[in-house]
């Protein structure tokens, strides 16, 4: 991510595919070469994403019944981009399930070409005819960053919907406290970062970026978010 003249701060730059119609890029019109590999840009300063979300929102509700109180907080982010180096490496080495599937011939993609394996990149030849060249999935790196797979292949929508927090509290009836020095008393349990209800980044939390500053929108070695569960006791004297 760089602060480039003429671009908003937050744009991600990297290599991109080349397209039959550069002004209207479509996945189906990515250009491949004679080997069936994508033809990527020679430059790495192409705008391929933007870390800034379209909007963020929080929705909270509290339900009460007599002394019980139940509250929940849902966080939402729409849009924004994140580059995943984990995906680039993981797919290159065959670690992720996305590299092990049944191909268009009905065979395991990891079979040899002679045994009906392999895959065909979606795209076209330079003359606009559909790509029909089958690549060997046994070749290292084809799904990751070899075979003309550009940086843009591993840029994902960073949007999410999360169940951020749930809290359940119970306030003791005042009649139980009338003869002691405590005016009010309540007990409760709470949990935070409880669930990711929706996301687009595979196998990682979209908030698990590497750092802040110019390293926003860059995910590597992502660890699961910490889920916290606790309890509290509140007394008023």
What can you see in these coordinates?
Helix content is 3%, strand content 32%. With 237 residues, it is mainly β. The strands form three sheets. The chain has a five-stranded antiparallel beta sheet with strand order 3-4-7-8-10, with no helix packed on it. β3 and β4 (68-78) form a beta hairpin. The mean pLDDT is 90.
Name the descriptors.
single chain; 237 residues; mainly beta; five-stranded antiparallel sheet; 1 helix; 10 strands; 3% helix
Cα-based radius of gyration, to the nearest Å: 25 Å
Please mark out the parts with pLDDT under 50 across 5 or more consecutive residues, or reply none. Answer: none
- The level of helicity is under 10%
Overall 3D geometry?
elongated
Task: Look at the helices and sheets and give the structural class.
Answer: mainly beta
Major pleated sheet: 5 strands, antiparallel
Amino-to-carboxy terminus distance: 53 Å
- The largest beta-sheet arranges its strands as 3-4-7-8-10
SSE order, one letter for each helix or strand = EEEEEHEEEEE
Amount of beta strand: 25-35%
Number of helices: 1
**Quantity of strands, as a count:** 10
- Mean pLDDT, nearest integer? 90
